[in-house]
Amino acid sequence: TTPVLELVDLVAGYRTRNGLLGKRAEVRAVAGVNLAVQAGETVCLVGESGCGKSTVARTVVNLLRPSSGEVRFDGTDIATLGKSELKAMRRQVQIVFQDPFASLNPRMTVRELITEAWRIHPGIVEPADWDTEVTALLNRVGLNPGHASRYPSQFSGGQRQRICIARALSVRPRLIVCDEAVSALDVSIQAQILTLLKRLQDELGVAYLFITHDLGVVRHFADKVAVMHLGTIIESGDTSRIFEGPAHPYTQALLSAAPTVDDWKAEHGEEIMLRGDVPSPSRPPSGCRFHTRCWKAQDRCRAEEPELVHRDTDHPVACHYAAPDRTLTRR
Ligand code: SF4
Ligand code: MG
């Protein structure tokens, strides 16, 4: 079936002034990404800050135009859409950011924040039904409908994120991009929000592109995981497969650092510490982009960029020396 979202050879970035001469250069924050999200599923894009995952998010919600490649919604390249089609597509793809305080206008009540979207997209809910619908939405996300006339500042961080989720749901999207949506929250609140998102998916069939730096968060949440490093996806597959046998050294390092994966630490003694700084996406290392930090690197890695190849079914890995580490399955 046609995925609700498909990224095809996506290249995107930003232009920057280089040095004193002010020569303009393009930084390819996203350097050729392929990814598909099926209706009603959760795909998690994981990587360190600066890996390009937020740039992916911005192209998906059409805040940034790709340099090349395609963002397909329901099989159609969104660059080919006319104005009204684009507006319809925008309604169906919503985004929830890390900081709900920054994305909620502090001068608007919860009711106004939600009904604003119905003003922008008429025809979804008739004004006569707004009150009923606001009540239903707030109930759905676990907020007291009696608080609809309160302002964002009168809620806790977790509650504010529930407001953002209610607002995203108000236009009945098919896909919600969650860009570090739980990263700023306490662990217990994170779990509550993830549980809520899961329930909403079961009830409404909405798909998530869930973007995070924390692999631990996604273990029981994502159907599929794609690991991103310096603008490219270096490993992807079903969540259980990635967690049971991560095959790329970078994924192994991320997993070993995930706070929830205690078994790994018991097995390995400690985290795999990556040496060196994250290279700049404007000047990625030659060959394998991970070679400056990889403890398995050989001469070949400096010269030859590994392709994303399937090692076994639906588990592509970009590493010349990929080897699944199965220590996590021994439990
Ligand atoms: Fe490490 Fe080489 Fe594999 Fe890159 S290709 S991840 S440098 S072993
Ligand atoms: Mg980011």
From TrEMBL:
One biological process term in Gene Ontology: transmembrane transport
InterPro entries to which the protein is assigned, alphabetical: AAA+_ATPase, ABC_transp_ATP-bind, ABC_transporter-like_ATP-bd, ABC_transporter-like_CS, Oligopep_ABC_C, P-loop_NTPase
Keywords for this protein: ATP-binding, Nucleotide-binding, Transport
Pfam families hit by this protein: ABC_tran, oligo_HPY
Gene Ontology MF terms: ATP binding; ATP hydrolysis activity
Gene3D superfamilies: P-loop containing nucleotide triphosphate hydrolases (3.40.50.300)
Family to which this protein belongs: Belongs to the ABC transporter superfamily.
Protein name: Peptide/nickel transport system ATP-binding protein/oligopeptide transport system ATP-binding protein
Taxonomic classification: Bacteria, Bacillati, Actinomycetota, Actinomycetes, Pseudonocardiales
